[in-house]
Write a structure and sequence with these properties.
There is one protein chain. The protein is α+β, with helices and mostly antiparallel strands. Helices cover 24% and strands 29% of the residues. The protein has helices spanning 3-16, 31-45, 59-65, 118-122, 147-152, 200-212, and strands at residues 49-55, 71-76, 80-82, 85-86, 96-105, 125-135, 157-162, 178-183, 186-192, 223-225, 233-234, 240-245, 249-254. The strands form two sheets. Strands 1, 2, 3, 5, 6, 7, 10 and 11 form an eight-stranded mixed beta sheet that branches. The protein has a five-stranded mixed beta sheet with strand order 4-13-12-8-9, with no helix packed on it. Helix 1 packs across helix 2. The longest helix has 15 residues, at 31-45. The termini are far apart.
């Protein structure tokens, strides 16, 4: 089976919202191949690329997905929402709902030989946002698959909701951001910024350098969401989710 069949199937599943009933081919043999498939699916879709999500930045997420580190996925304008939005999903979808901290970039971080430092990356940030990502694997085994399939499947991203951006914080403050999550008005979960690779600023720096190693780079206007900072939880159609962050404000979605 050719890569093209896999690319067409993954693009089709994202467009339809439906889960694939069977695998369109063998799993990518390594992470380099998986990322190449992800990029080819992005090109095939023709959607507007608006930034990146970082998956598996927390120990809980890594344990759940049997991953030994983070991985990237694309954020699309067509599935990027403002706080308060009603996010529609297909009946067959998972709706793993992830409170996260996101950044919007003020300028490019182009390729170079030396890795970017955290301070250099933070200097490229325009605004910081409270965010909620909706995660949905499109392959048959769902969350019981290989990491290479997760990467090929766009890092499992479905949608992202952004709260209003605020002025960048001091570097020492990001890890201390707290979030409390309500579902249908009932407080359920909490977390802290340090749960994402030690801090969302560290996750953002990881991505900046990771992309350069794969002939990509962060660009002005990119939105980057840095991974779940609470426990992992599912939601169902009709649920209203509100995440209140210290220092950042609130973001909400209705499924």
């Amino acid at each position: 089976m050719s890569d093209q069949k896999i690319i067409e199937a993954l693009a089709g599943a994202r467009l339809s919202g439906e889960k694939l009933p069977e695998y369109p081919g063998p799993a990518p043999q390594d992470m380099t191949k998986a990322f190449a498939v992800q990029c080819a699916v992005r090109d095939r879709l023709g959607w507007k690329h608006s930034g990146w999500k970082i998956g598996c930045t927390s120990p809980k997420a890594q344990a759940a997905l049997k991953a030994d580190g983070p991985f990237p996925g694309p954020i699309y304008q067509e599935r990027l929402f403002r706080s308060g939005a009603h996010i529609t999903t297909h009946d067959s979808n998972f709706r793993i709902t992830e409170p996260e901290i996101a950044f919007t970039l003020a300028h490019d971080l182009p390729g170079r030989r030396e890795p970017y430092s955290v301070d250099e990356v933070l200097a490229a940030v325009a605004t910081v946002h409270p965010a909620i990502e909706i995660v949905n694997p499109r392959l048959p085994k769902g969350f019981d698959d290989t990491v290479e399939w997760y990467v090929a499947d766009g890092g499992l991203n479905d949608a992202l909701a952004l709260g209003v951006g605020v002025t960048p914080l001091a570097r020492s403050e990001y890890a201390q951001i707290e979030v409390r999550v309500q579902i249908n008005g009932v407080e359920k979960y909490d977390g802290i910024g340090a749960n994402a690779l030690g801090g969302p600023e560290i996750a953002l720096t990881w991505l900046a350098n990771h992309l350069i190693g794969r002939d990509h780079h962060l660009r002005v206007g990119d939105v980057v969401t840095t991974g779940v900072i609470t426990g992992i939880f599912d939601t169902k159609p009709g649920d209203e989710v509100m995440a209140n962050y210290s220092m950042l404000g609130a973001v909400s979605v209705r499924l």
